[in-house]
Here is the input.
Amino acid sequence: WAIHAPYVAAINALKAQRNAVILAHNYMTPQIYHGIADVVGDSLQLAIKATEVEAEVIVQCGVHFMAETSKILNPAKTVLIPDMQAGCSLAESITPAGIAEMRRRYPGAPVVTYVNTTAEVKAASDICCTSSNAAQIVAGLDADTIIMTPDKYLAQNVAREVPQKTIVWWDGACEVHEQYTARDLVEFRDWNPGTRIIAHPECPPDVVAEADFSGSTSGIIDYVTREQPERAMLVTECSMASNISDALPGVEFIGPCNMCPHMKRITLEKVLWSLHSLEGAVEVDPEVAAKARVSVERMIDLSR
Ligand code: 13P
Ligand code: SF4
Here is the structure.
């Protein structure tokens, strides 16, 4: 912490001067999560929070689609992303042409699009979802066949939770969560009996089936906080365990984890620079933003 302290102090001072708030995803490093964030959360919580921000500037400590979502929901604000290259393998896997192709293949089926997508893809969709509300959104739609894009694994996990619907999906995946295998989990459990295994729903369905619980990043935090198991393995991004371990001294976090290279592009140095220079403002074409806002707001309304 000592080496981070000058950055943390400088960012917090500049944040007040610029009338800025920092919205940080649960995958940020502990120095961002605990040192400078005003709000931490999963994708849905951050999107809802973005609608409520009154400060002039939002600094999005997360990946590009999250900053875009904040801009779509609160267009009058300056939304800064400390590194424009902070992408996401899911967002890169589909374009509006992909949505059109799915609509051609499954005429009349509504398109539920994960928030991990560009504004253009959200604009071409009927409604968005996040990992915390996907099953609820799909179950609530008045259609038997539903197109889910772009995460095939989230779609397959939702299909198991909502068997009354026929779900078809796009062939995208998260490069972090697709690396886990069910075999890893079985072997890990054999060597570490009694460990509570908790997986994000972007993992393949056989991985989720081996886990004791699956949920969004905040769902995972709530579960571990509530259950306080002696040992837990978080089958998700590495910063999750680091961020919550101090508050849960009775829980030993064990096991391998995978790092998201896009999330890890966001550093204290880059946050300080973006607040200083106001560089890295995210812009969304107003027509695209208006259509994308409909998809995101529908999701927020349906998840209340
Ligand atoms: P959550 O909505 O669960 O925070 O997930 C976002 C994400 O990118 C996970 O990889
Ligand atoms: Fe995208 Fe996966 Fe990184 Fe989340 S963890 S931002 S889904 S690549």
